Amino acid sequence: MGLEITTTRIEDAAKWAKQSKLERATNWGRKFSLFSYPFVTACCGMEFMSVAGPKYDLARFGAEFPRFSPRQSDLLMVVGTITEKQGPALKRVFDQMAEPKWVLAFGVCASTGGFYQNYHAMPGCDQVIPVDVYIPGCPPRPEQVLDAMIMLMDRIQSGRGHSQLRTKREDIIAAQQAGTEE
Amino acid sequence: MAKLVLDALTAKFPQAVSHTETINGDEIAWIKRDDLHTVAHWLKTDPKMLFDAPVFVTAIDRLDWKPQHRPLAEHWTEDKPRFEVCFQLRSVKYRYRLRLKVSVPEHDPRCPSLSSLYPAFDWQERETFDMYGIRFEGHPDLRRIYLYEEFVGYPLRKDYPKEKRQPLVRRDDLPINPIKATGEDR
Ligand code: SF4
To answer: How high is the ipTM of this complex?
Structure first.
């Protein structure tokens, strides 16, 4: 193998062995060049700033630039409380992102609604968009975010992100249909 | 200090002021609903009062109110209206503070709007309408201000179910909510 891959999980390495060289190379490239779109709505934004700033430095994982256009990004970070009124906007932002795309739910508000159990707060942004990694904490420590980032990178490398799986599924279905039509 | 205001108000409008009280240093005047605008106009323009600063508008839902909770306010025992609408005013020149309260029954949640006197009350009255469903008569543009148009009901009323959600969008691949399947919308 000409490609050097570092991983924190042995079982992941076994999974990658099933991937083709090309797939492995693309996923490797994807995981080290995440362009994040911070969908910052509430107090977790402060913690996001600290993670993105030089002390904890999210950039060393390759998530270098926060892009403020969803069309130029492939990692949606949902940072903060999502209200029911915001749901359509969040869905629209997610739909505008180019495939493959990943979603990080930052903080308990984005994961479950947190302590807002009432008429206005959405019980987790996964009601509207598929979430890959959830980060607990109110707000989460930067270390938790970095841990989640590593988990997400593992997921990307092993092709288990929601959008990657969806693409694979669609490919299989399309292949089956092409087979039945012949 | 502002007992002076309450006394002046009662002397000027003996008919309109049904009751006055002082709680923790806050002067409160209960005004009859139909006279609210007249009273507020006098408070704003009278050179001895000059209540020129609007502070807030809100409502209180006394759904489970029992007379023994607060032995004051005798007029409550008459018909026990469910809502109280509060208008907090301040006189910058004389440093008076005064709260006008109007009781509003549930079956007829109307209240005169003060937004023609105090333009700053415009949005606050919209918020009170949004959250409690108080209809402010004479308000130029009484629409929901925070919630979306599709929202049904008034969420800060005490009989609004705490867990009730009114989603605008949901993923279509979510597992079916068992509560939803029984027909109860959450
Ligand atoms: S999880 Fe806590 S810190 Fe984060 S948005 Fe919610 S309330 Fe704010």
So the answer is: 0.75
3-state secondary structure B109-167: CEEECCCCCCCCHHHHHHHHHHHHCCEEECCCCCCCCCCCCCCCCCCCCCCCCCCCCCC
Which range of residues forms the domain containing residue B143? Answer: 3-182
Fold of A3-181: Rossmann fold (3.40.50)
Beta-strand pair B96-104/A102-106: unpaired
CATH code for position B10: 3.30.460.80
B66 touches chain A (CB under 8 A): no
- DSSP secondary-structure letter at B176? P
Which phi and psi angles does B47 have, rounded to 5°? Answer: -65, -15
CA dihedral A89, A90, A92, A98 (to 10 degrees): 150
Mutate to test the pocket of ligand 1, among A39, A41, A46, A108 (most ligand atoms within 8 A of CB): A108
User: On the CB side of B50, how many CA atoms lie within 13 Å of its CA?
Assistant: 7
The amino acid occupying position A55 is K
Regions of chain A with pLDDT less than 70: 1-18, 182
| Spacing, Cα B180 to ligand 1 middle (Å) | 28
The answer to whether A119 contacts B168, with C-beta atoms less than 8 Å apart, is no
* Cα→Cα distances B72→B30, B66, B97, Å: 12, 12, 20
How many domains would you assign to chain B? 1
Question: Are the C-beta atoms of residues A127 and A31 closer than 8 Å to each other?
Answer: no
List A50's β-bridge partners, or say none: none
The pLDDT tens digits of the residues spanning B94-142 come to 888 999 999 888 888 889 999 999 999 999 999 999 999 999 999 998 9
Q: Is B55 helix (H, G, I), strand (E, B) or coil?
A: strand
* Rounded-to-integer distance, Cα A104 and Cα A110, Å: 9
Which whole-number Å values give the CA distances from A98 to A15, A102, A154, A179, B54, in the listed order?
A: 26, 10, 20, 28, 50
Q: How many CB pairs under 8 A join A and B?
A: 43
